[in-house]
Structures are given as structure tokens and as C-alpha cells.
Amino acid sequence: MASEGISYSVFSFSAPGANVFQGSETLTIALARLINEQSAAYVRSNPDKLSFFAVVPLPYTSAAIIEANYALDTLGAAGIFLTSNFEGTYLGNAAFTPFFSAMNDRKEKQIFFIHPSTPYLKIDNKLVEANPTPYLTGKIEFYFETARTLEDLTFTQTIHNFTNIDYIIPHVGGAFPSTIDRMLKSDPSPTLYNSSLAIYQTRFWWDSAGPTYYHQVSGLLAYGIPSTQLLFGTDFPYVPSFTQAGSLEAIEDSTAITAEDRILLFTNNSKNLFGSKISNSNDKTPKLSNARLKQKSYLTKQELQSGEPRTTSN
Fold first, then answer.
1. Most buried residue, 27, 135, 180, 312, by most Cβ within 10 Å?
2. Given this model, what pLDDT does residue 279 score?
């Protein structure tokens, strides 16, 4: 946080979340509670610097609802962390509809942070990793995982039906932006394209984690995503720290956004999204970020008195 000029972080444990013991409902529920209690302890130790996203024990839907409510109401979680799939089941699956419905029915707007995870095939009641390449899943396959689960959430109209939920999407959407026209323009529904774009432009928030502002972000912005929906995020410490300085510099040097856009990305947008869910939301100059433990954080960076974001380097 110090090296990036970040003063406030909303962090999460990254994939696989609580799904370490695949197929064991008891152990998955127990690990989710352990992670959330530990996350809350970190926040209590650093209340002016940290908030957290809670993990939930999906695919066990009833238990996930109980854990989410406990984490939000008792532990003070700022939102819910979801992986792109839970033991091979993607987020738009009807088995998860009761979870989305329960969260949507809560009084306050809910924030779901959707992070890619390892893809699986179910063969003979066993989960088999489905990365077809010899390369690490986090290199490329994570981008396709984001596209798969957002396609699922869109075609099942989960994002349309539960309007009290906002979504944070890391890596400025991974491979998803390159699929939107092909996916939606080939759908027979005459309204799905425009209604989906409206959601991507208003209830989706796109974080910058990784080397995404060299060129990749231009593909996302081509869909009319306003700068009010851009967030600063990091993959630290999931990826080597030496990569982060270049990623930050790419944001600061990007011609795809303006100086005013950078102020929104580094600070104001996170304030608008999280509001009272973060402890210093009333501060005139909070610095926020999203981080992953194997960490994902949503951070807002410092504003200078001139209104320009501070340039930092490792």
C-alpha cells in the first residue's frame, strides 16, 4: 500500500476462496467462517486502512446465505467475494438463484466482487482441471473464466433480475469485452443487447488490476463504459510486486483516459461505490483500493491538492 500511495484497501482472499476441500460441505463452511473471522480481525487491527470482502461456501447455497448475512451484519464486511465458478458450477446456474435473491432482498445495495478461478470439468463425479494449456491458469485462463461467468450471468439474466446488486470485475473484464458483440448480437432477443450494456455501464465496476492500461482498457471503453465505473485494483501479493509499478505507470500515462478520469479512478469512484461501507468514506481525501490476499484490494489513491493523482513508483 505504501509503495503505491494507497491509504485504504478493501481486500479479499482470492481463488479458490473457501473451496479448498472440494466436495466437502462441512469443511467448506468451516473454512469460509475461519477466513471471514480472520479478515475481520485484520480490519479491527487496522480500522482506518482496511475493509474486506467476505467469502461464502458456495455451491452450498443455504450455508452461503447464512455466512453472507453473518459476515455483512456481524463482521462488517464491505461486500461478498465470488469466484467465477464454484466447483465447476457457474454463477448464473439456477442452483445459485436463492443466494442472489437473498442478497438482493437486503436493504442496502450489495457489492459482489467476481474473481476468476480455475475452470473444471465434472467427469465421473470428480472435478478435473480444464485448463488445456501447459501455462499457469492465472496467466490467460483467468481472462476466459471471467468471460464465461459474465456470459452466464447475462444469458440467464441474473444481472437483470436482481437489481440491488453491483458487481466489481477485475482486470478490466479480462477477455469479456472482446466477446460482448458476438455474444449479444447473435442472441434472438431484441432487447438483451441494450439492456445488458446499460448494466455494464452502470452497475458493473471495472478494476485495473494487472497490466491492463497499456492497451487492453481501450476495448472495454469502446462499449461506452463511463469513467465513473473505473476502479484501481491490484493483484498483490498474488503476482510479483515488481510488476505493479509498471501497471500503475500505465494508468498514469494512458491516453485512453483523462486527468479528470484518473482522479475518479483513483479515489472518487471507490467512495461512490462503497459509501458508508468503508470507515473513512466521509474523509475529504480518502485513498482507496481493492487488494487480494493472495489478496485483491480496491484501493483509492491519493489526490493532490491540485486535483491530480500522485505519481508513485516502487
1. 180
2. 65
Counting Cβ atoms within 10 Å, is residue 104 exposed (0-12), middle (13-18) or buried (19+)? middle
The dihedral over CA atoms of 181, 184, 189, 195, expressed in degrees to the nearest 10, equals -90
Evaluate the omega torsion of the peptide bond into residue 16 and state whether it is cis, within 30 degrees of 0. yes
Q: Where are the beta strands (DSSP E) in the chain?
A: 6-13, 50-55, 79-83, 85-86, 89-90, 110-115, 120-123, 126-129, 165-169, 204-207, 230-234, 289-293, 295-301
Is residue 306 very low, low, confident or very high in pLDDT (cuts 50, 70, 90)? very low
Overall average pLDDT of the 113-117 stretch: 97
Per-residue pLDDT, averaged over 117-132, amounts to: 93
- Classify burial at 106, counting beta carbons within 10 Å of its beta carbon; exposed 0-12, middle 13-18, buried 19 or more: middle
Does the pLDDT at position 83 exceed 90? Answer: yes
Minimal CA–CA distance to 112: which of 155, 47, 167? 167
